[in-house]
Design goal:
This protein is mainly beta. It has one helix and 14 strands. One of its GO terms (molecular function) is glycolipid transfer activity.
Length: 188
């Protein structure tokens, strides 16, 4: 048997298959370029006042760095400090700090992550402090919530919500889940 005939047929089939594959590829649409992953703007060492839909101050933000995502219109923030003004001028604002923050496109949701500390004063003008690893704040609704453990400290009392909690920012009313309480001596 002649070995050249089967080899010639195999080479001819390979050439035909290669030509067919190249011909099929010519009709494929070009791959769309990857979305621009760079922020459309960056702020360094800034203070920003954000207004709500009625034109009133929703919150003030101070941070060393902010990056805005051009596609989603959201903002990523390094070590933010948010000041949430009270609806009633007789009350004190909330000051919320974290290692990282995120602001929704409409600025109606703030997500704080890492060593979150929220502090204010209660109706009796006593210091009020909440600590957690995560906190979601909704400034227009005067609400905040977390599913992470939260520690609420007031003079003489430390409450721990092991399964998170919610806070009404306007009334300074905090609800914790799966609570333990510890009484602490108050300095005079």
């Amino acid at each position: 048997m002649n070995w050249r005939a089967p080899l010639s047929v195999a080479l001819l089939l390979g050439a035909l298959l290669s030509g067919w594959a190249v011909w099929r590829q010519r009709d494929v649409a070009p791959v769309a370029p990857r979305a621009n992953l760079r922020p459309d703007y960056v702020l360094n060492d800034f203070e920003l006042v954000v207004l709500d839909r009625q034109g009133k101050e929703a919150f003030t933000l101070r941070a060393p760095r902010l990056e805005r995502d051009p596609a989603r219109k959201t903002m990523q923030i390094a070590t933010p400090v948010f000041t949430l003004p009270p609806r009633d001028p007789a009350h004190t604002p909330w000051v919320v700090r974290a290692r990282a923050g995120w602001v929704s496109a409409d600025a109606d949701e703030l997500r704080l992550r890492g060593e979150v500390v929220a502090s204010s004063r209660d109706a009796q003008d006593r210091p009020l402090r909440m600590e957690s690893e995560t906190l979601n704040v909704f400034p227009e609704r005067d609400r905040a919530d977390t599913r992470s453990q939260v520690v609420l400290t007031q003079p003489g009392l430390i409450l721990t919500g092991r399964r998170g909690g919610e806070a009404r920012l306007d009334t300074k009313r905090v609800t914790l889940h799966d609570v333990t309480a510890r009484y602490a001596r108050t300095a005079r």
